[in-house]
Amino acid sequence: QVLLVFAEEDEQSNGFRWACDKAGFRCNLARTPQSALECFLDKHHDIIIIDHRHSRYFDAEALCRSIRTTKASENTVIICVVQRHTDREESSILPLITAGFTRRYVENSSRMACYNELIQLKFGQVQAQFKLRACNSLFTALEKSQEAIEITSEDHVIQYVNPAFETMMGYQIGELIEKELTEVPINEKKADFLDTINSCIKIGKEWQGMYYAKKKNGDSIQQNVKILPVIGQGGKIRHYVSISRLCNDNNKVEKTCECIQAESQTDTQTCRHKDMRKGSLDVRSTTSRGSDGISQRRRSSMARVHSMTIEAPITKVINIINAAQESSPMPVAEALDRALEILRTTELYSPQLGTKDEDPHTSDLVGGLMTDGLRRLSGNEYILSAKQTHQVAGSLSSPISLNDIPPRITQAMENEEQWDFDIFELEAATHKRPLVYLGLKIFARFGICEFLNCSESTLRSWLQVIEANYHSSNSYHNSTHSADVLHATAYFLSKERVKQTLDPIDEVAALIAATVHDVDHPGRTNSFLCNAGSELAILYNDTAVLESHHAALAFQLTTRDGKCNIFKNMERNEYRTLRQVIIDMVLATEMTKHFEHVNKFVNSINKPLAALEENGNNGDGESIKTVLRSPENRILIKRMLIKCADISNPCRPREQCIEWAGRISEEYFAQTDEERRQGLPVVMPVFDRNTCSIPKSQLSFIDYFIIDMFDAWDAFADLPNLMEHLNNNIKYWKGLDGRNLRVLRPPP
């Protein structure tokens, strides 16, 4: 809001009125000091422009001083309009500043000059005042905090302490402000204690631990302290924030001091997608740090249980919290109770969906993909696959040789090493059998036959058997999807960071797992099969039904006939290792463990690598190799790789993304139709072909599953082209949704 104080209307006042209209600012006009003051006290304007050119009308400086005496003007920008003098020396601006003006404006009635002045004010002084105004809320929070808070400059001069700090240390705020820190942390047990703290905070990391400090009366107290460096102008540390609370003498647990990486509030990975998400999980905020603290024995019948030597990490965490509860004030104890309730659940990695305000597309999609269904509500049973006759090598026609591939198919596979490779062109050229041809080419490129010690004809027969057991009648889960996932897997395996990490046996396992990961998929979800009481659901106890079936059937089809047994010449132990990796990767495609896999990847791989890079160790090959090559981390990387390959459709070029969206929607529509025909619970009611918005469903899937996962995978494997496609596709779906269109493409 702008207040113009001009005694008479002229070109200058009209120029500012026009500028306010153009900028969209609300404007009031006052002719006298009294009306100006009354109007300001009523409206609390952000900008006041006072005419100082004609002193015969009113005293502009006296008016400014009057406004400045009011509490409401604390964050108001006041501008003084002065005459333009070309025939005399420039006068000092100090009297205007002393009167309370923020700046002066030399008269210029040009409309654009007035407009430019207002815009500069908005993005300069006014925006700065908004931030200062917000500081009042922050300081109110600090004043009421029960933790002692101290803020010092980069030179360790005290600039602020809150009442809790005064109470804890026995000082008054006036005794501390502008004083240098003279009391330093003292730890009699460790001579290098101060060096440990300084080595952390001086390089921009926070420090947390126990230390002893002296109160004003000389008493020594033990504190649990966290010291956080604050990065400011020039990217340098400008302040230190110290947060302290007293330790209870009855529960002194010696803790190791730790350096915790301070996370930047302007993290580019977070900001990049902030405008495209509703509330998806931010994987960077999930931590799983362990603790070596020794939990205190509790004087209860549970003591022996809590001190068992065979203890899971989560049990140790719960024991530590239990011990902390005993000596905590009531609000903290209640908060820890709530934390314990969460920790004692089994779904530690799965975000909880809201019940009322959550987007129905998200809740239906997530419910359908991440649960094993409701119990059966009718006598209808869905019989699947268990009694079907699967295609075997002997029942198939002779496979074609890699050297005899028709020219059209060869041409369709020319750029298969590129991410923008068009799988649908290959699907058309091969009459919906792209897996054999693409498999032959990719497996040859990676030397799979040489590793497995099998002939090309055996590999061709195997690929044919696997492809024949994909259902071409499925709109989405068919051999084209398998070929697409195989292509994405091969592309990821060619990235430098992935090549540094995986061994040849890992590459072989990844390509085989991608090929078989959805074999014999019925085009229905796990929830559907469980609700229908299918034989597969009964066989696998309603747990990872399809994924278990894909892995088991793949090995059954491979090993039952020597003509297609690509493993028959492998040494036994090597085969068992390969089989274990393939099964693990196929099972990783099950969506109920989605967040567990992503969070473990971020915490075990992304964060340690980022810490090494921030510490200037990007050239330290050994440190990076330690992170990448540990057996546990290689498992996480392989799981993440196939997960990203499996649901990479939103990261494909737009036309491919749209085609895949149409296919998966049709498969879900067909499932909803069948559920209603059979009287089964409808797992995803939003996927009704008559009412479903495909753009909304795509945005929900991307928001909930894709963004965080590909942020993490991109940070690891460096995939800017995929992220660009993802951004473009999000904009495309948002554009359709913004026009309330429910279809794949806008009308011509």
UniProtKB/TrEMBL annotation:
Binding site for Zn(2+) 2: D518
Polar residues bias: start-end ranges: 283-294
Active site, renumbered: H477
Binding site for AMP: H477, N478, S479, T480, H481, D518, D646, Q698
Stored SUPFAM superfamilies: HD-domain/PDEase-like, PYP-like sensor domain (PAS domain)
Annotated region described as Disordered, given as residue ranges: 279-304
Binding site for Zn(2+) 1: H481, H517, D518, D646
Co-factor remark: Binds 2 divalent metal cations per subunit. Site 1 may preferentially bind zinc ions, while site 2 has a preference for magnesium and/or manganese ions.
Residues covered by the PDEase domain: 401-740
SMART domains for the chain: HDc, PAS
Family from the record: Belongs to the cyclic nucleotide phosphodiesterase family. PDE8 subfamily.
Protein name: Phosphodiesterase
